[in-house]
Amino acid sequence: IEGHSSVEHVFGYRKYETTEELAAAYDQLIREQLIPLIEQGLSGAVYTQLSDVEEEVNGLVTYDRKVVKIETRRK
Fold this sequence. Notes:
Layout: H1 19-34
């Protein structure tokens, strides 16, 4: 998210142009990859990068903690 990083060049495993695209991809990940694993015994999952750190922008919150990239109350 422009203006919320500590550096100009950032790194991420995937890039989404909008928070809506990010939220849709996150929902798809949960629906298609995690929920099916419940039948196999999955009892929990952890998103390990809560906030962006330096040039890595995979967090759910920006580096400066001013923008939450995915709404906390989801449908």
